[in-house]
Amino acid sequence: MTKKILLSVFLLPAAMAFAQQYGGMWIPTELNEKEMKDLGMKISAKDIFNTQKPSIKDAVVQFNGGCTAEIISPKGLLLTNHHCGYGQIQAHSTVQNDLLSNGFWAKNPDGELPNPGVKVDFIVDIKEVTDQILEGTDNLVEPELTKKINKNIEVYKNSQKIESYQSIIVKSMYYGNKYYAFTTETYKDIRLVGAPPQSIGKFGSDTDNWVWPRHTGDFSMFRIYAGKDNKPAEYSKDNVPYVPKHYLPVSIKDKTENDFTFVFGFPGKTTEYLPAVAVEKIMTDIDPARIAVREVALKTLDEKMRTDSETRIKYASKYASVANYWKKWIGEVEGLKKSNAVEKKVMYEGSLVAKNHEIKATLDQLNKLYNDQAPYALNNAYYTEVVRNAETLKLAGDYYDYIASVEAGKMDDKELTKLKTKVTSFYKDYSAELDAKVTAKLLTLYANKTAPQFLPIGFAKYKDENQNVPVIEEMSKNSIITGRAQVNGATLTGDIEKAFSNQDKLIKTLKKDPIYQLYVSMKETYMKNADPQFTSLQGKIDELQKKFMAQQMATDKDRKFFPDANSTLRVTYGKVKGSTPRDAVSYGYQTHLAGVMEKYIPGDYEFDVPKKLIDLYNKKDYGIYKDKTGDVPVGFTATNHTTGGNSGSPALDANGNLVGLNFDRQWEGTMSDINYDPRFSRNIMVDTKYILFIIDKYADSKWLIDEMKVIK
Ligand code: ARG
Ligand code: ASP
């Protein structure tokens, strides 16, 4: 044994015990009840998840496939984030009646607004089904293995008796080492009840995104409607408010540091069990590549958005979504460095090998595979991000798929309508001139950062940005994809039906289009020189990751394992807590309305404050919503281990009462998706006091509060 490994083994128990302190996203049927109780929980695991009688899980739903939401009244009143309901609020907005800017509050149930297409999913039951799904797979290798598993999943699903409005979803856990079946129930009549104006619901916008101290009232309210029998039903004005099996009482008691909390929701994706080499690649190759691409796109957009308000409105939502993960990845890299994630993993691997020497072979192979894959993975990261952020190329990709589908004889009326709708809605918020600039700059980046074997022939000419901008502008002007040139006597951005009227002509023109040809050269080079190698190595990595996961679980008996997030229902728990993320910097756990006013910049698009809120602040008209400081609490942080998808999740106290609404994480801890560290990882929630204060005092919608069970 080398000195390094000896040292690591010696240091490890303390390091691991620390890292394990509260992280984890637990399957609700497998909770660490004892640890939760030791931390202060007063209810039992059965109160959280029970299929025999009502439990807290009956009040928690997945909101429209992405976020989480919870029921807070006996009449199916639903609470989620403003950024989760954003699309619906926007869809009800017009220039004359801009609900995003003004907010919206139904005066009574009749005023609630339907949202066709929006659904919520309840989890009715969870069962481990590993034996059924892995039956007869012992001696199989890929691709037979996956085929057999998929067949077993079908057999299992067909063997279960469910209602017409229910589904069964089988999900792999621990990289294919276990399988779980979820019975879900879907309600489809979901109406908008209320939303504060953006100046409250999105206060601080991109500048404050991922940042603590935070002052955003990121909430909106919906209601679930059901048929007269309380069962799911398609939208009908005769539907009635859903009567839930359970709804969350809302506590407006003061919070104290170290209070127990748990968060119940649908976290999307984490990768906590990767080998050190994988984390190192994310930190040094993948994240920096993605960040670099988005940085160029954002900077170019920002220059224009600052001087032109039409562009600012058009690109606001896109800019926010590009900026969201750009900022997240920067925080993630910093956090991985600061938490010594790679070193910690290396040490951990040393300790595993010391206990079970077979693990060494797995790790050696993983190391080799990740290193072999590195150049392809890097190209994959640059290629995907460039094509996603150079909108002109992304559009070209849609037309490329269209031609491929026509040529394969797969294009029917339905597919064609889908494509036309997709590009039409894209063109609505698209500026060809601006994107020509973004595309030119991204091509420069791609030409300079990409190894020659991954570049199309002749691509070196894009290396110089100054030459490039006019060249791409010229291509863009002569392209039908950008809507600046015509086909069939029309532009695709003007009269799409006419532009599609002669499809042979359209396809011929596309194939000669300068932007289309540029895209094809990039795509085909990527598909030939990088993608097959990348994908085939990834297949091998996945197989070994499954083995490595099983070995970790079999070897590290002291560790409590939880499966990585995969958009299934989970519980995470911890304590209300501030943090000390940097030298001499220390964060309190709670923000207040006074802090909103400290950030107030009149007329600013991120930090304006609505007049009525300023009036309430000046009059100190806080009613029962102030805390011991005399001010209204706005946000708070805790050590709950959350990720994307947990937005809108309820934060509950020791008694299972709602105390906060999860919506974000603190920047210094966003590496928690890869390496949760209780020193820096904090989830950010809106305080229930602020939510009720806004509903009652700001929106004069006391009728909604009267529906709730408020714990004072
Ligand atoms: N960072 C949070 C999450 O990942 C909130 C995002 C919405 N807000 C924004 N300014 N883009 O979803
Ligand atoms: N803001 C994220 C969401 O929308 C939550 C997070 O990443 O912490 O789900």
Automatic annotation (TrEMBL):
**Gene Ontology molecular functions:** dipeptidyl-peptidase activity; serine-type aminopeptidase activity
For biological process, the GO terms are: peptide catabolic process; proteolysis
Extract the Pfam families matched here: Peptidase_S46
What's in the keyword line of the UniProt record? Aminopeptidase, Hydrolase, Protease, Serine protease, Signal
The domain of life is Bacteria
Gene3D superfamilies in the cross-refs? Trypsin-like serine proteases
Using the UniProt record, name the top-level EC class of this enzyme in a single word: hydrolase
- Give its E.C. classification number: 3.4.14.-
Give the signal peptide range: 1-19
The similarity annotation says: Belongs to the peptidase S46 family.
Functional summary from the UniProt entry: Catalyzes the removal of dipeptides from the N-terminus of oligopeptides.
> What is the protein name stated in its UniProt record?
Dipeptidyl-peptidase
